[in-house]
Specification:
By secondary structure, the chain is an alpha/beta fold. It is built from seven helices and 14 strands.
Length: about 220
């Protein structure tokens, strides 16, 4: 069983939201298929180390294909209080000892699933992994941070930044972005800080809370990249 490193999860969301690096198969590291995402990995000739979900959207021939191609299959009952993605994240950290989990295909589809996956970092069993989880699509990279000082690396054309509190944030400072801040409180849930890279990196720090940071490009840029 693979251990450590970055684990990639492919969820059954729209292919149109996949980043080009996934389509071109440039992403390294082991993959976990989440429900229909397992079929899509098999279609890309990528063999998942695990397949996780209730698989309620799969027909029997599709389920048989999953069983022929994946050794570690975790099938949940459809009547559950968590998403398939949440289950896969916990398996990656708990059983495969992942250092980071990158989630692809979890945005742009069903809003209830996306919101559940976005806020899973607030649940006690996931919160300790918050700064090891990313949600990545064609237009956005969503990361989560616990208090500290950080340097962001600009990703391709994702020049826009949003700093969104998931809990009250104290003393947020943005040092070298387009619009600096100095020791600002960011109330929850009624405020956020919108910003832009002015170079290839940006730095920020804060003292308390759980912060969501989104790097993004706008729709026009994503269509014409």
């Amino acid at each position: 069983m693979p251990q450590g490193g970055t684990f990639n999860l492919l969820v059954g969301g729209p292919k149109a939201n996949w980043p080009q690096t996934l389509t071109d198969q440039e992403i390294t590291g082991p993959w976990i298929g989440v429900d229909r995402g397992t079929l899509r990995l098999i279609g890309l000739n990528i063999q998942p180390v695990a397949a996780i979900g209730d698989f309620d959207s799969l027909q029997e021939p599709e389920l048989q294909l999953v069983r022929r191609n994946v050794k570690d299959i975790r099938q949940a009952q459809p009547e559950k209080d968590f998403t398939d993605t949440q289950m896969a994240v916990m398996v990656a950290f708990r059983d495969y000892h992942a250092d980071r989990v990158d989630i692809y295909g979890a945005t742009g589809g069903r809003l209830d699933h996306f919101m559940a996956n976005l806020f899973l970092v607030l649940e006690p069993q996931y919160k300790k992994y918050a700064n090891q989880i990313r949600l990545i699509d064609r237009q956005n990279t969503i990361t989560f941070y616990l208090p500290g000082h950080y340097r962001l690396q600009k990703e391709a054309d994702k020049k826009y930044l949003a700093f969104i509190p998931l809990t009250p944030i104290d003393h947020l400072s943005l040092f070298d972005e387009k619009y600096p801040l100095h020791d600002e409180p960011i109330p929850y849930p009624i405020s956020f800080a919108s910003n832009e890279f002015i170079g290839e990196t940006g730095t920020f720090q804060f003292d308390t809370g759980l912060l969501c940071v989104i790097q993004s490009c706008d729709t026009y840029e994503a269509r014409h990249e």
